TrEMBL record:
Pfam families: HxlR. Gene3D superfamilies: Winged helix-like DNA-binding domain superfamily/Winged helix DNA-binding domain. It comes from the Bacteria. The lineage of its organism: Bacteria, Bacillati, Bacillota, Negativicutes, Selenomonadales. This is Transcriptional regulator, HxlR family. InterPro entries: HTH_HxlR (IPR002577), WH-like_DNA-bd_sf (IPR036388), WH_DNA-bd_sf (IPR036390). It comes from Propionispira arboris. Residues 1-58 form the HTH hxlR-type domain.
Length: 69
């Protein structure tokens, strides 16, 4: 399932797949400068909304443990 999602993200130009030769086999995924970076902006906005929600609902201690505030 994760492989399928990564393939889709690669097809849409959000993620870049880099395959390395040799043993052990290794593949690296990274966000693309074009579409991936734009998606990152949206994810950061959603994270900020989630952090505000958690603070408003008494869950700031969880955020502190994770280093988010």
């Amino acid at each position: 399932m994760l492989i399928e999602q990564l393939k889709e993200l690669t097809e849409y130009g959000i993620v870049k797949c880099t395959e390395y030769e040799g043993y052990p086999l290794r593949v690296e995924y990274s966000i693309t400068p074009e579409r991936g970076k734009k998606m990152l902006d949206a994810v950061l906005i959603m994270q900020a909304i989630g952090i505000d929600y958690m603070k408003e609902n008494g869950m700031a201690d969880i955020l502190k443990c994770k280093g988010l505030i």
